[in-house]
Amino acid sequence: MKHIATNNAVEMLDLAMQIAGSSGFHRRNPLERMYRDVRAGTVHPAINLDTEELVGTVAPGVPPPVPSGWRG
Length: 72
Known about the structure:
The protein is mainly alpha-helical. It has one domain. Helices cover 58% and strands 0% of the residues. The chain has three helices and no strands. It has helices at residues 2-20, 30-41, 48-58. The radius of gyration is 16 Å and the shape is elongated. The two termini are 18 Å apart.
């Protein structure tokens, strides 16, 4: 879920930033914060690669490993 939601949000905000142009990077524009926060979502926690590895391992029925960046 996190992988899909985060990557869809990145795609939507990329489009929003293209529409807004350089004004989207100004601190007074809410897009600046949204863009920064959504981009951070792809690396915090778990990064896309860890998520893809977990899904690829669990899907065929193999017990899931505990990725190095995760704490439980």
